[in-house]
Amino acid sequence: FIHHRPYFHKPIFSLSFRASSSFKLSSIRASSSSTPFFEPPKPSPSLLQTLTPLLKTTCITVTAIVETATRESMVSLEEQEKTLVQKLGKTPNDVETLRSLMEVRIKLKKLQQAIDVIERLIRLEPQDPEWPMLRAQIHSYAGNFELAKKEFEEILAKDPDRVEAFHGLVMAYSDSGQKLKELEKRIEGAMEKCKKEKKNKDFRDFKLLIAQIRVIEGRHSEALKVYEGLVKEEPKDFRPYLCMGIIYTLLKKKAEAEKQFEKFRKLVPKNHPYREYFVDNMIATRLFAEKAEREG
């Protein structure tokens, strides 16, 4: 792979993470007081790429890890990588060290080398479902859409209702210019299954994913209706408010956007590992909207 997709060029809009997660990247630092640089996002069918956080936290990790690299010097990261490699020379099967090395290499945008580390983690922890998921997400992030789609499908073959895998497929389909109609039918089938089995959290996450598809399609009013329904069902869930705030910002409805962002700020836990990432992207969306208005 040669060409990487531009970093930090889209507002956060793949909102697809769950409020809690079992994902194990314990060394992620999302609480820095500094603010990362954001290149103004470009409105496009894939403007949602970094909204990944609102299903399960795994879905946001690649983008979030890369963005935290803006808070660290490349020299420091290179030194960390060297130290971790030396440590693995003595303890090659140390899972925690391998996780740290994977994270550092993602920050350094050494994506293939990060995938190599994930392959080692898969061999060491073959029953852990998160490593294949992250590998597929990195492939998608890097623009290897066909390989990413294959890997997401392999995950769904083992776990047909895995929301994060469907989310990954939506983003890979969208970014590769593929239509979402057939995929949406599969998502609706998984939703029906979740509803029958009373998997309420998964069902809610699928609704967030459907709303994301509506935004990808440019059907913002329909997306807003889905988010409004989610708010009525669970007013304390901060995710729909952030999504609606971003949509209203892009629609140049500043007052309504601020109203939604205020609700989001009040509800998002202060100790949430990606709180600052969400806030940063909220600010980035505002800056983009203001820039677009000035140049209008």
UniProtKB/TrEMBL annotation:
Positions annotated as TPR repeat: 95-128
Gene3D superfamilies documented for this protein: Tetratricopeptide repeat domain (1.25.40.10)
Any GO CC annotation of this UniProt entry: chloroplast thylakoid membrane
UniProt keyword annotations, A-Z: Coiled coil, TPR repeat
UniProt keyword Coiled coil, yes or no: yes
Coiled-coil stretches: 173-200
InterPro entries per UniProt: TPR-like_helical_dom_sf, TPR_rpt
PROSITE patterns, per the entry: TPR
Annotated protein name in UniProt: Protein SLOW GREEN 1, chloroplastic
